[in-house]
Structure formats: structure tokens, C-alpha cells
Specification:
alpha+beta
């Protein structure tokens, strides 16, 4: 019984520390031309394959590790933008169309 209880507490502790090392960043991606949300824009943690896409309103939410430092925002026909995360939990981005 003691081994089962100890195993349970170790699993809970491990899950708690794993969750403590991540954070959720959210925001909105809009077009510089008309200030409307861009649906389907891509948000990727630089140097990884971890990412998400914006919803119909241009809003997004992504959970990143504490070590993540930069997000890449892109959409077809727009210039890709790199944004430093820092300690910010909300990042709103304006993308400009390519020439």
C-alpha cells in the first residue's frame, strides 16, 4: 500500500512540475490594411514545430515552454513577423501585406 501511495504522489508531483514550466500566450493577429482579424494565420514557436492557427476572428492561444523566446506570425501574402515573448502573456500582432 505504501508503494502505491508513494507512486501516486510522485506522479502528481511530476505532473505539477511539468505544468509549472509552461505558460499560455494569447492575442489577435490583424491586417495592417483594414485592421480586421486574419483567420488561419500561423503562429509557431521559433525553432520548433509547435504552433497553432488563428480562429475566424484572428484570435489565438498557444501554450509554450518557459524556455520559448520568440513566436513567428505568418500568413500567405503577408510579411512574416518575429515577436520576442519575454514575460508577456498577451501578444497582438499586425501583419503587413507584401508588395
Amino acid at each position: 500500500m505504501k508503494k502505491i501511495l508513494l507512486s501516486f504522489f510522485l506522479v502528481v508531483f511530476y505532473l505539477g512540475t511539468a505544468m509549472a514550466h509552461s505558460r499560455t500566450i494569447s492575442g489577435r493577429v490583424i491586417s495592417g490594411d483594414d485592421q480586421l482579424g486574419i483567420p488561419g494565420a500561423s503562429i509557431v514557436v521559433k525553432g520548433t514545430s509547435q504552433g497553432t492557427m488563428t480562429d475566424l476572428d484572428g484570435s489565438y492561444s498557444i501554450t509554450v515552454s518557459e524556455s520559448a523566446s520568440t513566436l513567428l506570425f505568418s500568413f500567405v501574402g503577408f510579411v512574416t513577423k518575429e515577436v520576442y515573448i519575454g514575460t508577456t502573456l498577451e501578444i497582438n500582432v499586425t501583419l503587413c501585406q507584401t508588395d
